[in-house]
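User: quick one, fold this
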Amino acid sequence: MKRRDFVKMMAVGTAATAGLGMGVTSAFAAKKKPAAPAIKKLKLSKQKEWAIEEYKGMANFILPSMSPDFKTLDEEAVRADVQNSIRHGMLASVLYPVGFHKPVETEQHIQTIKIICDEARGKKLFPGTCIGAQTEAEDMAMLAGVENIGCSHLLVHLDRSGICKTEEELYEKYKKRIEATSIPVFLFAMVAPWYKKFGPSGIPIRVFDKLADLPNVVGVKFSQPMNLATAFQCCEAFSDRLSVGVVNLDFAPMLSKFYNVQWSGQWQVEAVQSPEKPYCVEMMRLLNARKYTEAMKVYNQFSPALDYFFDLQAPTILKHVSPWPHRKYFQWCTGGNGGLIYIDNPRYRHQYVPILDAAAREKVKETYRSIGIEPYNGPEEEFMVGKAAYKRGVRAKDLAHTQYYKA
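Assistant:
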């Protein structure tokens, strides 16, 4: 039995038999804090209250769409992906800033989130973006650029501008960024080998515990490869003050019974649902309504696709890359714009990004069909350039690059 299969069996199986009670104690003996009261009984900042009351459901990532030379944004395509996120029933869409290019990387990032915020304005969709560049200066410029444009929340990555020697140093790096904005902040609990000295799987639990006391730190995202034991320790430490979101949906039913887990997302949710069959959105709605039996029936409908997505992406996340072309393909197959991504950083670990070849594309479509979804079947050339550009007459021959793609 694969480790993932065993963990899934334990996590999901426990949800089915939960309700019997579960005594839990803090994993941090030095702190010796009592069991936390329910989060709604604590005195919360207005930002934390927003997260608890409003941030419930599924959130996806929006990936930038660029011109055929990959130098400028395709605004029409970005707006189309926002519209498709709304059709999927997402509660939020977060911009993942991949494919922008220096020296205008920060400017393109700000321009894209402005477009997303504008398209989402007045609609039931919270627009957000990621903060986590290579330098403090870039992050501070981004924070200043998004402060007053309608961006509802930020996902802050582990700082990688320099490997911190102490937890206090790491805390201060986070704190400087977080206090530079009033926008609600979600922390990203990312499996990080370089910080293993600070906590299990490299999650700096004590640092996050301290950051959780800041008024605009409202939630935490658990990375897809995080194991269940680490997720438990994180929940014990700071779920009394933070809204918790798990990428690995196998953990959601069980953890939501005992902790403040009311959303999942900031990942490519389109990989396992469509606007017509919004499985994840429905499952999370049922979990939040405490209807676990019904939620597990929905989970069982799309679990083959979830297994495929986990096997595809989790190994790449551990190498700090992602299956970029596949993620765009998932969106295209379920109504999104599509379009290839080009990353020009020579230091990027390109060798770990899986190639989207004919077999991979067929596997994606086959997986959709296995869960009752008929994927969009337009011409592959339309995917390569993106639906918006294809309608304008752009073709594959016009693309300056076809990175990570094979016909």
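User: anything notable?
Assistant: The chain is about 40% helix and 10% strand.
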